């Protein structure tokens, strides 16, 4: 799999780098008002670009196991332009999707657990400390917190209405995400507590 950084890698909102409104694919339906305010693409709702449809796969915490990594590489090869882009939020982005590719992509993404909820897929923007759980990194392994937050988001029907630009961050206490303008952040503390920060403040 070839990996390249997307054109909007420096942007924090993870928006498409190409202008235009998003296209919608079944089974997700949204109101006209929602379409206007939130153009963030997903797997089920793609974005029309000059080189074909663009899809974005949410990867909470930025962690992929081997099966998921192979799936992303296979989708890039089989239904996209051959490359998988990394976004500023640790998600994967595929370009150049052909007609009919959304159904194939959704099936494959769902098979490795990266599409647990069709209604919540675009709100699962969770960035985690990349070295958490490794020797000397942070004060605790935040992988369980990322998983719990992801499950909690998907379990509440009301949270499906969150904007696709909303960003959650889970910091292992090393402070490596301190400069990230997250809307809500959890930061591990040495004594075992978890600090909640809202829009950058405690």
UniProtKB/TrEMBL annotation:
Residues 50-107 form the Nitrite/Sulfite reductase ferredoxin-like domain. The keyword Glycoprotein does not apply. One of its GO terms (molecular function) is metal ion binding. Keywords: 4Fe-4S, Heme, Iron, Iron-sulfur, Metal-binding, Oxidoreductase. Residues 1-14 have a biased composition (Basic and acidic residues). InterPro entries: NIR_SIR_4Fe-4S, NiRdtase/SiRdtase_haem-b_fer, Nit/Sulf_reduc_fer-like_dom_sf, NO2/SO3_Rdtase_4Fe4S_sf. It comes from the Bacteria. Residues 1-35 are annotated as: Disordered. This is Nitrite reductase. It comes from Candidatus Frankia alpina.
């Amino acid at each position: 799999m070839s990996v390249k950084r997307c054109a909007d890698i420096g942007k924090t909102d993870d928006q498409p780098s190409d202008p235009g409104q998003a296209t919608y694919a079944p089974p997700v339906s949204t109101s006209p008002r929602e379409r206007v305010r939130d153009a963030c693409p997903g797997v089920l709702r793609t974005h029309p670009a000059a080189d074909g449809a663009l899809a974005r796969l949410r990867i909470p915490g930025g962690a992929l196991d081997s099966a998921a990594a192979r799936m992303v590489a296979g989708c890039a090869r089989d239904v996209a332009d051959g490359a998988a882009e990394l976004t500023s939020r640790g998600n994967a982005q595929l370009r150049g999707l052909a007609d009919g590719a959304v159904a194939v992509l959704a099936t494959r993404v769902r098979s490795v657990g990266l599409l647990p909820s069709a209604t919540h897929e675009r709100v699962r923007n969770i960035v985690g400390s990349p070295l958490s759980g490794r020797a000397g990194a942070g004060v605790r392994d935040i992988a369980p917190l990322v998983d719990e937050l992801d499950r909690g988001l998907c379990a509440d029907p009301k949270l499906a209405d969150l904007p696709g630009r909303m960003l959650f961050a889970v910091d292992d206490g090393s402070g490596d995400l301190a400069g990230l303008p997250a809307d809500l952040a959890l930061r591990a503390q040495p004594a075992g507590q978890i600090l909640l920060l809202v829009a950058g403040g405690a």
